[in-house]
Amino acid sequence: MPLSSQPLRKLGFLTIGLFDEADPRRGHESTLEIIRLGEQLGFDSAWVRHRHLQYGISSPVAVLAAASQRTSRIELGTAVIPLGWENPLRLAEDLATVDVLSGGRLNPGVSVGPPFHYDQVKDALYPDTGDLEDFSHERVRRLLDFVRGEPATDFHGAEGFEIFSDRVQPHSPGLGSRMWYGGGSLRSARWAGEHAMNFLTSSVVKAEESEDFAEIQLSHVREFRAHHPDGDRARVSQGLVVIPTDTASAEQRAKYKEYADKRTPRAAAPQGPARMMFAPDLVGSSSEIAERLYEHAAFREIDEVAFALPFTFDHEDYVQILTDIATELGPTLGWRPRH
Asked: Is residue 1 part of a domain?
């Protein structure tokens, strides 16, 4: 519960990993360099977003496998993998493999629901079962069972020279406790708590009982912990868009202000039929941002964050923003870098 007298315990960041279609390697290399910089700056965690049929990271597990070989300490997370695109058994194998390769640093975040633009992609994604697929929380439960070592089959043992296991291999014993659910509603928060997951709450929530973003997010945090076996000790990470300008150039400050100004109107009221609420981007000096965070009701309930880097900025901008978060904003919030 980071009040002005209580320190922030864990500091992370989230990147979308954009790239140019004509030169995708450059964008992926930029993402890997940003993750390595995060480790050098002492961040506790680095998280990647997930984008299908777009110019962002489509395979976060593969990207984090590469990142695991360029870093040695920083935790690596996904925020989040939409399970509507995934086979839970195969994903469990990939997650366990990367967790083993990273030395137990993987923090997979997932969500459920039909894939975005499902009517346009279902014939390519599920040509034979598109109308039968289950996109409910049951898909998460299956993944959790496989990751946590529950049997995937009733067959195991030797068959000729082949040896078969009845559970996902490799099995990484600690991975099950590092599974996160990215939720924006009371129902999702409750489900994640009941299934002993960790909870990712971002800059987008569903307006259910209020139209005040901080109050909505606070209700989700409390609902999650009320149903989690660990109660108030259950892990929650908050992901707001934060842009400190302490060492930014005049040109960067103008760019950041223009970016935030364009996005501010959507934070005024619920958007669309689903009544989604967006948090305003926090732009300014680290002291100004810290003051606004201490006024945020949900921030006062958590002790770890994964601040989201804004979309469409240049590599140099991300270097400046991350450096300011690690050297200015983090310490202002009482955080100490890990080296």
From this structure: no
